[in-house]
Structures are given as structure tokens and as C-alpha cells.
Design goal:
About 30% of the residues lie in helices and about 30% in strands. By secondary structure, the protein is of the alpha+beta class. Among the domains are: about 100 residues, no CATH class; about 110 residues, Fusion Protein Consisting Of Minor Coat Protein, Glycine Rich Linker, Tola, And A His Tag, Chain: A, Domain 2, CATH 3.30.1150. A hairpin with a 4-residue loop joins strand 5 and strand 6. The longest helix has 24 residues. The protein is globular, with a radius of gyration of 20 Å.
């Protein structure tokens, strides 16, 4: 399930965006504000391209039909576009989104043995920026509280790719895998993005059934030790990912919980989504945390790999505040 979505020219946007990302001068607050503004422009270009030729009324109808069918992925996708691009239809999108996000399909698992754990290998290929990451079981958003028996899991990623001649290309890459929930333990799926030289797609998505247990985890490291080590990391080593404004500007509190695995050098080796408010928020966070670096965790003087949970909650009135994170 791979295809090229759109080709979008951003000749006027990219120089300023790259300059903002690479500039080392000026106050930190000024650089942060400029980076946020530039990323919002890129995101709006992304959302506008995804809208294609659909009118606001067509998007509203998509939300209503998908919501009635409990097709949460399609409903959330259309709702995000409506909230960003169709002010007159915003109320319906907000109401439906709030209902969906309260549903067990889109929240943390209450029955871990009937869930699927998606582990995303790091780092992602060079020159690829992840904009969207979503996981569906039998066409519905979320991998939790599944019935015992067979299921088809689909993973979808949208990439912003730096093409030749300054032209930016947006790609949709995805794959499916058949799994069986036995009700005794979670199913683990390892997802990795593999570069490819031929074809229109610069990358392909590989899904395989993973090994049981946490990748990179060390049994000798307690959860408390790993958690404390992670909390003490300087903000320069773990900068906060930018939050897509589409849900926060609609007045909805957003949250995400990830399990982060670090290798012996302190580099991120895997990211496992545990719960998230929206696929777009998941995509931007997975893209950002892959750049995090920690000092190696030492146990008896030996660098040790470890995993730890990380949670972030963002209130609508403090979209990009420094104090809106809960570990």
C-alpha cells in the first residue's frame, strides 16, 4: 500500500524555514517562536494538500458517515481538515472528535493481553520528515481492546521528502500485516522504514511480528532508575516536540504516551506508541524524539540500555508552553 500523494512547490517557504531551523543567533525565545511559526506554515501546506478537491460540505459528510460507522480513522482524518480549513463546519468536527477520543479504540488499553504493540525502529531515513503516523485494526483507529481471533493491522505514514531542485514531495507509505489475538499476551509488531533506490517512493514500510519483551531493555535496570535518569536529562538534549495546532486550537486537550528505548550510548533505539489523541500528534512526536540524546545510563559503571514511559499532556490555552509536560 504505497503511493505518491502530492507534489508541492515550497520555493518561497523552505529558505525561511531552513534558516529558522539552522540559525544560532538571537534569543532562544525568538528562535523558538520563529521555528513554531515556520512549522505551522509547513503543516498548513500539508493539510491543504491532503484536502485535495473535497469541499467543506463533503468533508463534513465524510465525518458524519464515518462516525456513524465507527470508522474512527476516516472520521479523525476528515475532522482535522475541517477544523483547520472550514471554520463554519468546525463545531461538528470538534464534537465528533471529542467523542472519538473518549472511546476505548483511541485510548490506552484496559486489557493488555488483547492489544497490539507497535514498535517503530529508529532512526528514520535521512531527508524524511514524518508528518503522520496512524495504526488501524480492521479499519478502525487504535490497537487496543481487540476481540480474540484474527485481525488485519494497517500502519500508515506520511512523509515530507526533500526532492531534487528544491521541490518538496509528500508521500503516503503503508503496509498491512495479519495477526491473531489469543487473549494471553499482547501482539508485538516491529515497524521499520527502509530506503529504496528504485520506484517513485524513496522509502517503504516493513512490518514483522516482533519478539516478546521490550527492545533494548535491560533486566538489571529498575523502572525507577530509568525514569529518574530520563527526568534529569537537560532540555537541550530532549527538546519538546511541536504539537500540531489543529486539535489544541479547537479547544481540545491532547495527550500522548510513548515508551522510549535507549541504547548503551544514550541514543533512541525504538519508540513504542502506548496511547495518543490523534495520529497527527503521534507522527510529529515520533519524528522529534528520535533526535533525543541522553548520557549513557551506568549500572556498576557499565553503560546499559533501558526503556522508560514518557507522557505529555497539552492544554488548549498553552499549546507551546514549556511547562505543559507531565513525565
Amino acid at each position: 500500500m504505497t503511493k505518491q500523494l502530492y507534489r508541492v512547490g515550497l520555493a518561497a517557504l523552505l529558505p525561511a524555514w531552513l534558516a529558522a531551523c539552522g540559525s544560532q543567533s538571537g534569543a532562544h525565545s525568538g528562535r523558538k517562536l520563529e521555528s513554531v511559526q515556520q512549522w505551522q506554515r509547513v503543516e498548513r501546506s500539508y493539510l491543504t494538500a491532503r484536502r485535495e478537491q473535497r469541499t467543506c460540505q463533503e468533508l463534513k459528510n465524510t465525518i458524519e458517515v464515518a462516525f456513524a460507522r465507527h470508522d474512527h480513522g476516516a472520521a479523525l482524518d476528515a475532522a482535522e481538515l475541517v477544523m483547520s480549513l472550514c471554520p463554519a463546519e468546525k463545531l461538528v468536527a470538534v464534537e465528533n472528535t471529542m467523542v472519538i477520543l473518549a472511546d476505548s479504540q483511541a485510548t490506552a488499553a484496559t486489557s493488555p493481553s488483547r492489544s497490539v504493540r507497535l514498535r517503530v525502529a529508529q532512526p528514520l531515513p535521512a531527508r524524511q520528515r514524518l508528518l503522520w503516523l496512524a495504526a488501524y485494526a480492521d479499519g478502525k483507529l487504535g490497537l487496543n481492546n481487540l476481540a480474540v481471533g484474527p485481525h488485519r493491522v494497517a500502519v500508515v505514514m506520511h512523509f515530507w521528502h526533500a526532492g531534487p531542485g528544491g521541490v518538496q514531495e509528500m508521500f503516503d507509505v503503508g503496509n498491512t500485516i495479519d495477526i491473531t489475538v489469543d487473549g494471553r499476551k499482547p501482539v508485538v509488531i516491529d515497524a521499520s522504514v527502509v530506503p529504496q533506490e528504485q520506484g517513485v517512493m524513496p522509502v517503504r514500510l516493513r512490518l514483522v511480528l516482533g519478539r516478546e519483551g521490550r527492545p533494548g531493555a535491560a533486566d538489571s535496570v529498575s523502572v525507577e532508575d530509568a525514569f529518574a535518569h530520563f527526568q534529569q536529562a537537560p532540555r537541550e538534549q530532549t527538546p519538546l516536540p511541536l504539537v500540531p495546532p489543529t486539535l489544541t486550537t479547537a479547544g481540545i486537550t491532547t495527550s500522548i504516551e510513548l515508551e522510549l528505548c535507549f541504547d548503551e550510548r544514550g541514543y533512541v533505539s525504538r519508540v513504542e506508541p502506548l496511547s495518543w489523541a490523534h495520529p497527527h500528534m503521534l507522527g510529529t512526536h515520533v519524528e522529534a524524539v528520535r533526535l533525543w540524546r541522553l548520557d549513557p545510563l551506568l549500572r556498576a559503571g557499565v553503560p546499559t540500555a533501558f526503556c522508560t514511559a514518557w507522557r505529555r499532556t497539552v492544554e488548549p490555552e498553552s499549546d507551546f508552553a514549556d511547562g505543559d509536560v507531565g513525565y
